[in-house]
Sequence to fold (1616 residues):
Amino acid sequence: MTIDLEALFIDLHRNPELSFQETRTAAIAAGHLRDLGLEVTEAVGRTGVIGVLANGEGPVVWARADMDALPVTEQTGLAYASTATGIDPEGHEVGIMHACGHDMHVTAMIGAVEELVRTRNEWSGTLVVVIQPAEEYGAGARAMLDDGALDRFPRPDVVIGQHVTPFPAGMIGVRPGPQMSASDGLHVVLHGRGGHGSRPHSTIDPVVMAAATVMRLQTVVSREVDPHDLAVVTVGAIHAGTKNNIIPAEATLDLSLRYPDEALREKVLEKVERVIKAEAMASGALEDPTIETLHTLPATINDAAATERATAAFRAAFGDANVIDPGLFTGSEDVSWFARDAGVPLVFWFWGGVDPVRYATAVANDTVDSEIATNHSPFFAVEIHPTIEVGVQALTVAAREFLD
Amino acid sequence: MTIDLEALFIDLHRNPELSFQETRTAAIAAGHLRDLGLEVTEAVGRTGVIGVLANGEGPVVWARADMDALPVTEQTGLAYASTATGIDPEGHEVGIMHACGHDMHVTAMIGAVEELVRTRNEWSGTLVVVIQPAEEYGAGARAMLDDGALDRFPRPDVVIGQHVTPFPAGMIGVRPGPQMSASDGLHVVLHGRGGHGSRPHSTIDPVVMAAATVMRLQTVVSREVDPHDLAVVTVGAIHAGTKNNIIPAEATLDLSLRYPDEALREKVLEKVERVIKAEAMASGALEDPTIETLHTLPATINDAAATERATAAFRAAFGDANVIDPGLFTGSEDVSWFARDAGVPLVFWFWGGVDPVRYATAVANDTVDSEIATNHSPFFAVEIHPTIEVGVQALTVAAREFLD
Amino acid sequence: MTIDLEALFIDLHRNPELSFQETRTAAIAAGHLRDLGLEVTEAVGRTGVIGVLANGEGPVVWARADMDALPVTEQTGLAYASTATGIDPEGHEVGIMHACGHDMHVTAMIGAVEELVRTRNEWSGTLVVVIQPAEEYGAGARAMLDDGALDRFPRPDVVIGQHVTPFPAGMIGVRPGPQMSASDGLHVVLHGRGGHGSRPHSTIDPVVMAAATVMRLQTVVSREVDPHDLAVVTVGAIHAGTKNNIIPAEATLDLSLRYPDEALREKVLEKVERVIKAEAMASGALEDPTIETLHTLPATINDAAATERATAAFRAAFGDANVIDPGLFTGSEDVSWFARDAGVPLVFWFWGGVDPVRYATAVANDTVDSEIATNHSPFFAVEIHPTIEVGVQALTVAAREFLD
Amino acid sequence: MTIDLEALFIDLHRNPELSFQETRTAAIAAGHLRDLGLEVTEAVGRTGVIGVLANGEGPVVWARADMDALPVTEQTGLAYASTATGIDPEGHEVGIMHACGHDMHVTAMIGAVEELVRTRNEWSGTLVVVIQPAEEYGAGARAMLDDGALDRFPRPDVVIGQHVTPFPAGMIGVRPGPQMSASDGLHVVLHGRGGHGSRPHSTIDPVVMAAATVMRLQTVVSREVDPHDLAVVTVGAIHAGTKNNIIPAEATLDLSLRYPDEALREKVLEKVERVIKAEAMASGALEDPTIETLHTLPATINDAAATERATAAFRAAFGDANVIDPGLFTGSEDVSWFARDAGVPLVFWFWGGVDPVRYATAVANDTVDSEIATNHSPFFAVEIHPTIEVGVQALTVAAREFLD
Fold:
């Protein structure tokens, strides 16, 4: 290899960028793709990058990596930990961190492209490399598609992609059918009436309204969803007030709803909205809450036949024991939009990023949940090796499966 | 009058400054006091100003006005409404507004000093004008005292001060004994464990912990305080999270506690802390919540004899019908520290700032609570006239009562 | 005295009877009154008793004692503790106890009548002794009035009555104006949908609905009532379900609301109903909750002039130090209906029932709340002496004040 | 048939008996079994009945039916609806209903025994009929085993049993492996301090403590259990207080916990106990809650090989389309104890009891959850035909599978 992937990963990790602000990351990725000989277009869907490697007759494979980071203040203690800060969409200064591993996604993609370029005599077809922004807002795939991605570049016959996850490094997790959940993001504004902290009766206290709403929302999952069904209702953010002696006029809640079975979406949304409205009534609010949909993500559903082909290739490459069915994930992705809009198969898999010994020890001690940091945690850390190598190989193997 | 007090008020209203950031306001006040012939010292207790008018033998009267504004985004729709913004102590950009009328306090003080200077042949003694910062943080009086105010300037024989309030303009409210409540401000950090919004079981959700805590804190007043006693437990601010699909690692609550009877302080604090700790336990938190005292304010207790003298002077000046006993306020003040530290009497009163016709109409319609905005509301607005004139006269009358 | 009042008290204490079931107590009281020469009518207002002692020209004084006990299982450990049980209005078997001291009320009344009969040559007028049932349901006074009490017996010029309370024995507490609170009792049925405990999604869980309602009701007092105002919202009973693995179809709540200022009644009732309805909506209930008013009690307001007379008489009899202003009580009484319906003055006072040394020790240790059991507690116990003697004397003194 | 099974079912339905009080039901079942020629032993495990039909060499099959009813007041409106009442273990009078179909279980068992007797020449072995009490308390199987059932009667080679459920009549649901959940029943007493409803501060309010506990328990499922795992935490009963104006001294909660994966048991129990204790601390309780285990039920796990045999027999008898995998049930059973204690295979299945047309209509309208009453609902009603016939046949077919 001529590209120093470890250095690339560390550089990306040190310089995370929030969704739709990934200008530095995009420029780096575009630079590498150009150096490797691809025809590169920048600013597709605001900050997205598309690189095309036309290599003769044959199928068109879209290989996608997402590149945005999160408003999380890193606490890993790594030598190359991020100290970056930025301004989030609501104007607050926040720490920024690659707490979801998209730095590794870009790194592995660049490595895989280098490998595919190196072996271009062995395969035939067109590779379209999609460096996508704003996956964390569930908005980047849609932005690229709305910017004409399917029309401006060779249309795919298959879409592939991968996500690093807290498995032991060396393992691949993939399954046909439902792989990740559908999801909705809601931004809720509860309208109260502000006033002096010493005169609650002259106000309609939105802090209490918000607290009661959060408590009541727990009952959607605990009481109203069939225990056999999988649904998650998370309030990821709650904000109200500026000072202890002022009762503010409103409070905001940011909700993340998950349901692998899209049939649950409407029911859960209806229940959540019912609770939010009723709790405002219980507070005597003069105005209904404002409920805004931040994003709507489809379930990530792997095509059965294409996934079978990819899985067989993985087994051949990594050994049967290292390719598992990881089960359905409650997390969500917007990669599906590329395949859904194009009407073609999707294959999306996970690969491990944790030191295998550390993982095995945690399993033995039943401390996986407390010791192995998950995606989005401020302690999330990917073992550099062999994670890069396995990620490069997985992408290469899958692409070759469809390009050969 | 040679100073245009209306222009001064409007200028101060348009240019509000947060606690301990009142450099512009302090400079304006200092300028006027110097122009009026007082010996002025700036930067007493960070941004405070003290002006001394030595006018022969006689008592020393400290007249205090506070000058800081609040992190509230003005919604009054006034032509001279504030559009100022600033950075609060936690680094967030916030709107700033004189939502507590301290602009009027400074204005009335400057007018009263002008009047006392004009009539200096009629009285004898020393007037010490105290322009205090950071009343809203309960920290400004303490800062001035810690900066040697009692030693560097003539010690008081009496401390006087006033606060504008949503009474009809023209009315004075004053009572001997307890006038305002003792108060504590608490900043609480609830420690959870962060993670992905789709994997709540791998986290200790601080949003739910905070919501449960807020709901349980309601029971301190509803169940644990004798219904005959007056206590207020307000959570003025709640903050957690940056994004809907990340469960954050911690949440913060800012509490304002009020009790006119200082004997309740210890009991209420103990109950509040018990609830906060137990709710963290209910969440399975691995770490106790961090509870920091932001400020501790004493009850504002008017000296009986001095208040009787001032009240008689008010009755003579404004008529019996316009001088009422306003009852005990649940709000709090740090003006007491000046009198307590010096061991001298305090007289602190309220004066009205609402158009009397509008007020009477609201009383008739039983809409006072919903239509007359209270201090700290984004709709709080003081009727310029006759509020300035009554404020000037009240301060002058009270000062002359003790200086004659 | 010829009647053994201690034996009478112990007998009544051992044989408590629930509201409107006081047949034994009524018969005993009626027997004594007849023996003393009064003209006695039984079954006035179901189980009430009225005795008339016409003693020449002069005013008519109604002296009232209530006689019912409570569904409380006694835990005092007294030698003469009650072991009685009975069936409450909902058909449950409950322990019964004189946990509110009505046994002492009847005892003191019989003693006072004996004394007034003995001294009948010293006064002139008519004494009407009212032994009232069902004070604890707020229904007994109304029942007697609805049964024609004002028409069938000499109409009062004044109504007097007394209540034993956890003061030191020997003390009288009385004040002109508001003495006890207005109160409403509500019985609420929350309608859910029952089902198997393992299938919550097929039900509308009334246990969760009830719990959320109770938590939200706390905010009426903590947030919506002016901290200067006194209001109490108590849920005294909550019931749902028969078995851990059946989700029941409904839940019941029994509320007691208190407000010394009757102007608060409508506001608090409206807020309470708003919360109850909204929480049912939050649960997705298909039917609004049923809210039934169990009783509505007026504030107990002492007539100023008559109370001044009685207080002066108490001071003369017991010494100034033993007659205090007890402040406003949050408890409620239905004695007012007699005076309100007749349009005459009411004087209602408290007398102490706790051993003075024990009380003083608790005050010194700040353990009054935890060690001196209040009315309605299973540990409530009245010191027999001198409570009987003081109660007899207080009633006699007050009656004589109006009869002389 | 000579026994009128419809009449038997209606008679049992009209005369339901609570757990361990099933004397009438037991006598009827014993009578029929004796009439059919079995050797019958009564009072095995208090009210249980065992009938033995020794029919030559061969395997021993235990066929079990449970017979107790529930404290539910029937609301089906059926002509033969129960109007029975009884006294539950806490001494309350409750309505009684066969809301779980055990009347049908006994009926089908009697019919199957009659059929097996009739065809005794066609099979060889020993049939042991187990009429079990107190399944609803999770106590009856244990009681029979503790009473020596395995020693006093021929030991089983296989245990079979069935449960009627809201499937379409005609359908059989069965699966190898986990079929029903493990379960624990907890009875919790929360210790507060009682007092007068108007003096909450002198009490420790157990109603609020209970409500806060119920709300917090919702978060065990909504936040602390992996969304992929199935767990149910139901509070089926909450009780406190006797009267609106008395704050009681304690509250009780009855919990039903479910987890098909027994590995979850310890974790969920620990979380539930943590919440209950912490909420008592939040209330300032002076005593920890009392937590008593009412019952502990194992998961109902069907033996793979035996279930395969029975399923094949069902398919042959009812057609492939009528034998489905019903998935894992969140409900629980104590039938497992017979097989676990004996160390032999278990086969336990469900059969449908709803009119197929009504069921299909509800499916089409997406109203199954609201219109088809589940077990334990006061509206639970079994379609008499063909439910009896299918139940008889299913038992007969399964028994014959192992006896032939």
Q: What stands out?
A: Residues 263-282 of chain C form the longest helix (20 residues). Chain C has two domains: 5-180+299-402, 182-296.
